[in-house]
Structures are given as C-alpha cells and as structure tokens.
UniProtKB/TrEMBL annotation, chain A:
SUPFAM superfamilies: CheC-like (SSF103039). One of its GO terms (biological process) is chemotaxis. Residues 44-137 form the Chemotaxis phosphatase CheX-like domain. The lineage of its organism: Bacteria, Bacillati, Bacillota, Clostridia, Halanaerobiales. This is Chemotaxis protein CheX. Gene3D superfamilies: CheC-like. It comes from the Bacteria. Keywords: Chemotaxis.
TrEMBL record, chain B:
It holds the Pfam family Hemerythrin. Gene3D superfamilies: Hemerythrin-like. It comes from Halanaerobium kushneri. It comes from the Bacteria. The keyword Iron applies. The lineage of its organism: Bacteria, Bacillati, Bacillota, Clostridia, Halanaerobiales. Residues 10-128 form the Hemerythrin-like domain. Keywords: Iron, Metal-binding. Belongs to the hemerythrin family. This is Hemerythrin. The keyword Iron applies.
Amino acid sequence: MDAKYLNPIIAATDSVFQTMLSLEPKKKEVSIQEDLVTDKEANVIIGMTGDIKGSIVYSFSSEMALKVVEAMSGMEMQKLDKFVTSAMGELGNIISGKATTGLTAQGLSCDIAPPQIVTGKNINISSEADKVLMVKFNTELGEFDVGFSIN
Amino acid sequence: MIWRDEYKIGVELVDKQHKELFSRLGDFIQTVRSDKEKAEKKEEVEKTLNFMGEYVVTHFDAEEALQKRYNYPDYEKHHQIHEDFKAEVADFQHQYSKNDYDEDFLLEFSGRLLTWLINHVASTDQDIGEHINSAKENEEESK
C-alpha cells in the first residue's frame, strides 16, 4: 500500500485537533499490521468508497475520549455513553471529510460513510484488507491511533 | 461549552453571535445530561432546543446577509450547509417525540451537535472572516 495516501489523513488529523481543541498531536511510530487490533476502548470506523475503497479507524482510550468531550463541552464526562461516542464519531467524520479533500488534491475521488462506533476492550476490527497502516499520536489529553486500510 | 478566542472569525457581529450560540448549546447539553425524570426532562429538552434553534435561525440569517453584502464566493454552498443543519434539527425534534423521547437517541443527537457546531464555527466559518476582512480593506483603499 502506498503510504502517500496516509499523508492527507495525518494532515487532516493535525488540522482538526488544532482548530477545534488547540491541541498539537505528536506523530509517533507508523507500523504495518496484519489485522486491526486495538487495546483502546472508543473506536470510530469510517468506511471509504470511490477511488480508494477501505476504512479509517480512529481508536481512543476511554480516558482520552472523555477528556476530549470535556474539553469541548466544559462538562464532566464519566463514562463512554452515547453522547461521548457520538461526539467522537463526528470528530472522526470531520477528520475523514478533510482527508478526502486532501486525497482529491492527489487526483483521487472518495466518499465517506457515516461513522460506526465500536466500544470495548481488545477489539479486533475485521476488514477485507490484508494490511493496515497504523499511526500512533500523542496529545496532552492522551494517546490515540489512526488505522488506515485499503481493501 | 468552552469558548476559545481561536474560534473568532474577526467579524464582531458574527463572533458575538457565535458566543451566544455556544451558550445556548451549553444550556441544551446541560439539560440533556441532567438526571431528571423523563416527563420533566423532555419538556426542558424541547424548551432549550427551541431556544437554541431560534437563535440558530437569527444567526444564520445575519451571517448569510453579511456573506451577500460582501459577495462571499461560497455563499450557495454555505447556505446549503445551514439549510441542512436546520432540517436535521427539525427532523430530530420530530423523531424524538415519535421515539417516545428515547434517551440514547437524544444523547446521540446532542453529542454529534456538539462536535458539529464547534467545527462549523472554528473551521468552516473562518473563510467568511477572511473574505469579509479583505473585502473591507479593499473598500477602504478605494475610498
């Protein structure tokens, strides 16, 4: 899989965290995995269709998801309820929307599907892809992963 | 709601209205997240959502009038985003009563609304500010 497809996703992640939350995500290691396995509890899956068929998965620890929603709402969040997961789902939707704009600049036309939320521990998100590119980010509110797979 | 000065677009009227909108959205979300009895809560949810919804219309109208006044090139696109948003709120109000004021349905809607509105103000609306302020500068120069 060509890593250049990953750059618009990384750029969109940076930009959205900065404008919405005044946070600068620090990109850590990029790895290639066979499957999308995550130890993080709040997962947002965005399906992609068009010139690139696949999915982007944003995985946040429960703690980070709560902190992000607290930072937006100014209210205390205690658990991963539908309010928190839906707010995070929309965040994934916004980042992915921006990423498709970046992909358009590379001549690729893509559409995204509404976010799907999967919560729980040690999740294996099955996909048709045989490789998943995984980027780890660190922020002041915690760590999160962005996985990208092309079918 | 947390207001950040970075959300400002540099047009005083719009920034003032965005702050008010955040405040009304905050009231709505407080209500949504309160532990009240269903009967009492649904009334307050409807009340605070209407209160916010009224201001959404006031603000969208004012912002669109400014866009027209300064020939904002993305006016049509932005207008459509506003129309879609208003339709989504109206659709929620309709479905919420039809779903017997389902709590999860309410939480899902309001969580999405929170993120959507922040992004709309912090990102989508920024281009309007840039356009209006450069148009104003040009007007000043040609005087």
